[in-house]
C-alpha cells in the first residue's frame, strides 16, 4: 500500500486529518523570515524520504530554503519505494505479463507467456525497478541541493533533531525552523499472531517468499489484502480470503465490487466473509487457520493484512511535545500542522487516505504552508486507485452517498466489450460508470473496473475539478479506438436516460 501501498481501510479505517486539532491561529503561526534563518542549521528538516517527505523537501528547496532529509541508507525513497507501492505494483505487472492474463480472452484460458513461473522470475523485475527508483529519488534531492543525512531521526527538543546511525550511535544533531514528519508506516502485526516470516507473513513478508505457494489464506479484505490475493490467484494459487465484515472493499461502488468478486471466483478464490480468525497453527507442512465458527482452513501460507502502523515510536515525540495514537498516527490540522505549529506531519503517519499520491501532495502543501506561500488543495476530487487484477479506480461520490443526501442523479454505464479497443486488448469484463446530476448535468462520480482504470479515472477527475458537465463528454471527440471512449458511451447513456424521464414528465 499508495499505496505504496495504501492502508488497510478494511480492518481499521484511520481518521482523516482533523482541522480542529490543537494549534495556533493563522496570525500566530511561525513563518520563515530572514531574521530567523541564522538561528537554525536548516530552514526545514524532513524526517523520511518517502513520497511525502521527498515532495516537502524539494518544494521547500525550490523556494530557496536550506533543507535536509534524514533517512536510513538502505531506505532511500521510504517504504513506498522499498517495501510498499513500487514493489507491489511491479510484482503485479510481472504477474500480468508472465501469466498472460490480459491475452486469455483471445488465446484461451491456458495461455501463459512462461509455463513454469518462479519467485525469482517475479522479483527480478521488482528489484530492478526498486534500484532505479532509489537512484531517481536520490538524484532529485541532490539536484535540488537538499542535504541527505544518513540515519534515523529523533527529536531532542521541538526544534532539534538527532541523527542516529544503523548501530544506534548518535552521529549528529541539527536544528530547524520547521520539521516535517514523513516516516511512513509498516504492516500492523496483531499480538495474537505468531509471525515467522515463512508460512505466516505480512505484506512485507510476501516480498521475501522463497516460492509461490500452492494455497494461501489472506486475512483482511481491505485494499492490500485484496491486491495480493488477486495477484497470487492469477499465478494459480488457490486463495481463501477471510474477513469479519460482510463484504470486501466497502469504500467502493457495490456494482464494481461484485464484478471483482465474480472475476476472483473465476480464478478459484474463496471468500469467508463474516468470519473471524481464532488462531493459526503451523507445522513443517504448512498452516491451519482456525475460525471462531469452528471451520479450519489448511494452506501453505497465511498472509495477514491487518492495517498499517505509523513509524513514530523512535521519533522521541515527547521531546517535541507531541504524541501519537496506538496505531502510531499523529493528529494534524487542515494545513498538516501538528499541535506544535512549526512541526508538520504528512503521509501514512496522519492516517487516511495514506496513499502515495495523496502523500506527495500533502508534502508539497506542508512546505507551502510552512513558508507562508499560497496553497490550493483539491481534496474533494482525489482519485483512489486499487491495483487488483483487474484494477479499480474511482473519484467523487458513490450512489449511496448521493442517495443519503437526496441528490437527484442518473447512472451512465459503458462496458468495455462494447468498445473496439476493449476487443483489441481482450478485456470483455471492464466497465465505466458515471454518476450525473439530473438537473445541472454535473459529473458527480466516476467508477471504473478493468484495464487502465487507474489512468482513465483522471479524465473524469479533471472534468469534475474544473466544474465541467457530462455535456462536454457528449460533445467532445475522443480518439478511436481507445478505452477513453467509454466516457462518451457512458455520457450518452446517462443523458439519454435523463431525456427520457424529461419527455415522460413533460
From TrEMBL:
InterPro entries, per the entry: Class-I_Pyr_Nuc-Dis_Oxidored (IPR050151), FAD/NAD-bd_sf (IPR036188), FAD/NAD-binding_dom (IPR023753), FAD/NAD-linked_Rdtase_dimer_sf (IPR016156), Pyr_nuc-diS_OxRdtase (IPR001100), Pyr_nucl-diS_OxRdtase_dimer (IPR004099)
SUPFAM superfamilies: FAD/NAD(P)-binding domain (SSF51905), FAD/NAD-linked reductases, dimerisation (C-terminal) domain (SSF55424)
GO MF annotation terms: NAD(P)+ transhydrogenase (Si-specific) activity
EC code(s) of this entry: 1.6.1.1
Keywords: Cytoplasm, FAD, Flavoprotein, NAD, NADP, Oxidoreductase
Keyword Hydrolase: no
Top-level division of the source organism's lineage: Bacteria
Catalytic class of the enzyme: oxidoreductase
Annotated region described as Disordered, given as residue ranges: 1-36
Annotated Pfam families: Pyr_redox_2, Pyr_redox_dim
Family statement: Belongs to the class-I pyridine nucleotide-disulfide oxidoreductase family.
Role summary: Conversion of NADPH, generated by peripheral catabolic pathways, to NADH, which can enter the respiratory chain for energy generation.
Name recorded for this polypeptide: NAD(P)(+) transhydrogenase (Si-specific)
Lineage of producing organism: Bacteria, Bacillati, Actinomycetota, Actinomycetes, Micrococcales
Gene that specifies this protein: sthA
